[in-house]
Automatic annotation (TrEMBL):
It holds the Pfam family NDK. InterPro entries: NDK-like_dom, NDK-like_dom_sf, NDPK7, NDPk7A, NDPk7B, Nucleoside_diP_kinase. PANTHER family: NUCLEOSIDE DIPHOSPHATE KINASE 7. This is Nucleoside diphosphate kinase homolog 7. Residues 77-213, 221-359 form the Nucleoside diphosphate kinase-like domain. Belongs to the NDK family. Coiled coil: none annotated. It comes from the Eukaryota. GO terms for cellular component: axonemal A tubule inner sheath; centrosome; ciliary basal body; cytosol; extracellular region; gamma-tubulin ring complex; nucleoplasm; plasma membrane. The active site is at H190. Its main location: other.
Amino acid sequence: IERFVFIAEWYDPNASLLRRYELLFYPGDGSVEMNYFYLMIRLILINFLKKNFFCSLYCCFGSRHDVRIIYQYTGRQTLALIKPDAISKAGEIIEIINKAGFTITKLKMMMLSRKEALDFHVDHQSRPFYNELIQFITTGPVIAMEILRDDAICEWKRLLGPANSGVARTDASGSIRALFGTDGIRNAAHGPDSFASAAREMELFFPSSGGCGPANTAKFTNCTCCIVKPHAVSEGLLGKILMAIRDAGFEISAMQMFNMDRVNVEEFYEVYKGVVTEYHDMVTEMYSGPCVAMEIQQNDATKTFREFCGPADPEIARHLRPGTLRAIFGKTKIQNAVHCTDLPEDGLLELINYLSSSDV
């Protein structure tokens, strides 16, 4: 019998736990089996199966709402790792990933321990440059991503180019390693060679057990919080926003993709309830898809970054502050690209909350 196997997750607000299930879909009759539940929901799933039945698709199974399909065992995803030497070029690399038709479904800036580096490079332990690999990958932050598209492993390797950056500049001049790498070790980014390697590496950075994987890089000092809103993430604007923040002189010291549910968003926007007429639309936008939280550092970060974000209404921003993030990337007062913190104490609380796990 043909079937598709997924790992599904559901946030249980009563227990404050992210529960995971094995979900099986049978295309023959459109039925779904999830643990001991056997539910007939052909009309819900059949339209999504071939194109959209993957990360961040929210469905309703019986009484359980907001069950999110997070993983499909089809080889349509792979790991993309931005190495320490190319962290400053993360915006450009993410822009290349988006333009190549990939969807970023997980993202986290991390710092690998020596043990994690040994686990990551286990396939290279017999190579003469093994110790140099371990030393290099632990010198600074990395950005790990799960990226999704057809033939993901091969397409990502093609974008990367040859492992040696010098060879890449000769043989694949437009590749990521040609553009941003230095040599065979400091070569900007990594991608697994096979489905088995991709599965093993994804498990290291984004454990299916629900663990956090390698530690995030948050400093929680002299910082403020920026959240790239769902519409901007889905429109592929993340790379451009990262470049704009960097070029304005801010440091992005931590970053993580996450999802919010309606209850969390309502709490997040509680101060606006009954105050602004757009409150309900603001809530709906914020839980409509993945967000990306960033720790922003600079002197007096809360004030200076809020000024850089610009007025909440992009139309006003384009007239008064045309160089601000909302003026450039915002569409409406609801879809205005980014959230920024108003008060220093709120920024720290938001960062602790949204950088502590992959989902809220």
